[in-house]
Amino acid sequence: MGKSEHLIRLAQQIADQRPRFFQRKGAGKGDKDTNSFMGELRARARQAFGRDSSEQIISGENTKLAVDFFFPHEGTIVEIALRLRNPQSEFERDILKAVMAKEEGRNVRRLVFLSKPGAAKRHTQPSSQTIMSWLQRNHEIEVSIRELSDRHLREGSTG
Question: How far is CA 135 from CA 75, 107, 130, in A?
Fold first, then answer.
């Protein structure tokens, strides 16, 4: 298993340990919950990989353009995009960061978005598909959207 897949499993484990993780919380509470999730994921990833692969500045020198995780040997950027299912997300911005990283000479072949349920369906829309096709065709970067799974839905629970 590659590091990007291992990271996705770590994220799923953290989500499974948080009973209210998949509930919409709104601004403030939602941001705090996301920050806590990301802090835990970074810590577990550092422990699992023996180094910090998070907040990598690979798209120029601006720290505001850091990617969430970068695994250069796999050529994979992983963006934790929990709000990707929403109409306003950082989808295009994260794609731009991948293009900029590639133009900086980084080994970028894959961009993986990890989100809450609903993101994959939302990005089957023609606009998103056109952007992903353009990225593959012009920059040889494959985009995939992976979703964390709500344990309660997997188990058939309503509570």
Answer: 15, 15, 9
Contact 143, 40 (CB under 8 A): no
Say if strands 76-80 and 142-147 run parallel, antiparallel, or are unpaired: unpaired
Helix (H, G, I), strand (E, B) or coil at 108: coil
The helix (run of H) or strand (run of E) holding residue 127 is helix 126-139
CB of 99 within 8 A of CB of 141? yes
Chunk the chain into consecutive blocks of 10 residues (it has 159) and report each block's average pLDDT, rounded to whole numbers: 93 92 78 89 94 86 85 96 82 94 94 93 92 96 94 52
Q: Are 97 and 56 in contact (CB under 8 A)?
A: no
Is residue 56 a contact partner of residue 49, using CB atoms and an 8 Å limit?
no
- Which residue's entry shows tokens 């998070």? 54
- Residue 103 sits at the vertex; the CA angle it makes with 97 and 108, to the nearest 5 degrees, is 65
